[in-house]
Amino acid sequence: MKVNQNIAKYQKYPVFKYENRTWPNTELTKAPIFCSVDLRDGNQALPNPMGIDAKLKFFDMLVEIGFKEIEIGFPSASDTEYNFLRRLIEENRIPEGVKVQVLVQAREHLIAKTYEALKGVKEAVVHVYNSTSTAQRKMVFKKSKEEIKEIAIDGANIVKKYAAMYPESKFTFEYSPESFTGTEMEYALEVCEAVLNEWQPTTYNKAIINLPATVEMTTPNVFADQIEWFCNNLKNRESVIISLHTHNDRGTGVAATELGLMAGADRVEGTLFGNGERTGNLDILTVAMNYYSQGIEPTIYMENINKIIKVYKECTGMTVHERHPYAGELVYTAFSGSHQDAINKGLKTYNDRKEKVWDVPYLPLDPADIGRLYEPIIRINSQSGKGGVAYILEAEYGYKIPKAMQPEISYHVQKETDKFGRELENAEIFNIFNEKFINIVDPNTIHSFSYSFDNTKEDSMVVKANITINGIIKDVVGVGNGPVSAFFNAIEPMLKDTYEFITYDEHALSDGQSAEAAAYIQLKNQNGITHYGVGKDGNIDSASIRAIMSALNGFEKR
Fold first, then answer.
1. Are residues 381 and 256 in the same domain?
2. CA neighbor of 48 nearest in space, from 249, 248, 322, 275
3. In 32, 121, 222, 303, which residue has its Cα 20 to 30 A from 425's Cα atom?
4. In sequence order, what DSSP letters do the residues of 149-174 get, joined into one string?
5. Is 397 helix (H, G, I), strand (E, B) or coil?
6. pLDDT tens-digit map of 10-31
7. Domain check: are 476 and 546 in the same one?
8. Which CATH number covers residue 514?
9. Residue 227 included in any domain
10. Mind listing the pLDDT tens digit for each residue in 45-76?
11. Are residues 133 and 272 in the same domain?
12. Whether the Cβ atoms of residue 2 and residue 235 lie closer than 8 Å to each other
């Protein structure tokens, strides 16, 4: 058996086990506090960071979609960050009820400059941090546990001291033991409690303890154990907001966050579409929409996801993956035939149902709720089936294809997808349908026809027509209980084969007095082969007669 030659240099990260865990039995019933860190954590991960104008545009969008806490940057780090915050304050761009959040290292000159940038703000979160992990203590800072804890305590003191210099502003203090998941739990708790001891939060003036999975090291259940243990062992828990800040190194940032919330956390930091260092931050929109899809108010609003994507792309230069949950271009699109059939039937059931409870197969969310159209839900390629084609013909063009006719249309569409080896546009699908089935006039042609009631018989009709069938032009007359049967009786003597009338369906293609009608006629020949024809006309009786001719001509072209 082949073995990866470098596997030996990796080892399993030690698993933290909390035997008294209760989070697996918890149900999420209320959305957390959401804090966007796009303008700081997301921005620093961009190849070309946003300038002030782009940050202003992005900030306005975050406010518009409902964020009440927005980390706007690192104002002590650069003039751009500093000046951006000053413009937000001086131009009164921060709405009532929205807190801006600033990040700063636990160093006095940086904290002083941060408060200088915050001068005049109504409300703000001052977020101070230092790394506490085993690896960073040993390899980066080369400091003991006590020395690292002193950095955190000093930072907490300085943050509190400078806040007192700006009594016109209301500040919330936040502390992060960076690389929390790489820190011994008892030590992480010790450092956080030392910080809280300096701040003395109350139930009326809470502090935030943010617990970052700066690098995702374990499975989400282990992270949840860490969070529950921390929450249960933290003193004065009711005076503290526990916040999560997960990254996506193992691809489970959303899962870790949701389990962490089950474990007792109150708040979440993340970015739109998961933009961030390495594999990214938590995708905060996915978490919010996961709540929405369960009928829980998310407090973040995505009624126009296309606008959000547009602003995001313009400001960051990033893209949104086609398969991104909820927002991806293709996430509400089905190519598979069985999926298409289930979606088509599910949508019809939902539309016919009085109680509007969404449970459409393969669509966990109604695309219309976030401003997406129904047209792209079903798209046709070589993997598609008859239900998908029928859905497009009805949704786009108004033709309600009888179930028995769907395989016949799908056969012709499948031939084209196989021929071209690509997805077909809706217009191409309709062109196939139109060419093969609607008002087909060759080789058998109806030149003129008229119909009237037979005064000698009750519920009887007479059809007179001039037609060409099998190369013979002839005037014919037929009698029946309606125009369809009368016309069929008129032409039957001219047919080479014996045809049997199988089914008839009809409907209006649109509303209004000038609406056209569509008729669907299925015939069977003496060999047992069936074929459909479609007639379209402003008069339903005329449409039905045209459908008969279309069906006959379809046999000729098989």
1. no
2. 275
3. 303
4. HHHHHHHHHHHHHHHTT-TTSEEEEE
5. helix
6. 888 888 889 999 999 999 999 9
7. yes
8. 3.30.160.270
9. yes
10. 999 999 999 999 999 999 999 999 999 999 99
11. yes
12. no
